[in-house]
Design goal:
Layout (H helix, E strand, L loop, with lengths): L2 H7 L14 H11 L11 E6 L1 H9 L5 H9 L2 E8 L18 H20 L3 E5 L6 H5 L5 E10 L13 H4 L5
Antiparallel strand pairs: 1-2, 2-4, 3-4
Helix pairs in contact: 2-5, 3-4
Length: about 180
C-alpha cells in the first residue's frame, strides 16, 4: 500500500469482528515492521506484549478509568501493550539526560513505534485503536518487567465497523512560516 494512502485511510476502530482471530504469524509480521521505527540514538526502547484470551480479558476487567476501553478490548481478538525501557532514550550512558525533554523523549520514540505498528497493521488488513486510559495496576496485570513503563494499549483485529474520517483542521491552522 502507498504510504500516503495508508496514513490518510487508516482509522481508529473500536468494534471488532469477534469471529475472526489474528494469527501469531500475522502479528509477528506487523511487529517486525514496527521494530524498524527510528529511535533516539537507535536505542530501540519500545517493547511489545501480545495479550489474548484470559490475559486480555483480565486486562479488560481492570479498566475502570474508562469502561469503554474494556469493551473495546473484549471485542478485539488481541491487545498489544507497548512499553518502554525507562531512562534510555534521551539519556547518555552515564544516565544524565541528553535533552531538556528528559523522560519525554522516550515517549516520543514509543509514539513513533505505535504509529508504525498501526500503519503496518492497516497495510496487513488489520484494524487498531491506541488506548491511553488504563488503571494504575494495568502494568502489573500485563506483567511489564521492572525498568519498563507501560505507555499504550493497542486493540488489534478485523474491523466490525467502518468509521468515517474525522474532521481535520485546515493546513493554515497548523502551519506557521517564519523568515
Amino acid at each position: 500500500m502507498e504510504t500516503v494512502k495508508c496514513i490518510k485511510e487508516r482509522r481508529s476502530v473500536r468494534k471488532f469482528d469477534t469471529s475472526r482471530e489474528v494469527s501469531r504469524e500475522l502479528i509477528d509480521s506487523v511487529i517486525d515492521v514496527s521494530r524498524f521505527s527510528p529511535s533516539w540514538k537507535n536505542t530501540q526502547v519500545t517493547r511489545y506484549t501480545v495479550l489474548t484470551g484470559d490475559s486480555k480479558n483480565a486486562l479488560a476487567d481492570c479498566t475502570n478509568t474508562w469502561a469503554g476501553n474494556g469493551d473495546i478490548m473484549r471485542s478485539a481478538p488481541m491487545v498489544v501493550a507497548l512499553s518502554i525501557v525507562d531512562k534510555r532514550s534521551g539519556y547518555e550512558r552515564d544516565g544524565s539526560p541528553s535533552t531538556p525533554l528528559g523522560n519525554g523523549w522516550q515517549m516520543f520514540d514509543c509514539g513513533i513505534s505505535a504509529q508504525s505498528f498501526c500503519l503496518a497493521a492497516f497495510d496487513a488488513g488489520l484494524s487498531t485503536v491506541i488506548m491511553g486510559l488504563y488503571d494504575d495496576n494495568a502494568a502489573e496485570v500485563i506483567g511489564i518487567p521492572e525498568g519498563q513503563i507501560l505507555t499504550a494499549l493497542i486493540a488489534v483485529g478485523y474491523a466490525a465497523e467502518d468509521p468515517a474520517a474525522p474532521k481535520r483542521k485546515e493546513l493554515s491552522d497548523l502551519v506557521t512560516y517564519k523568515n
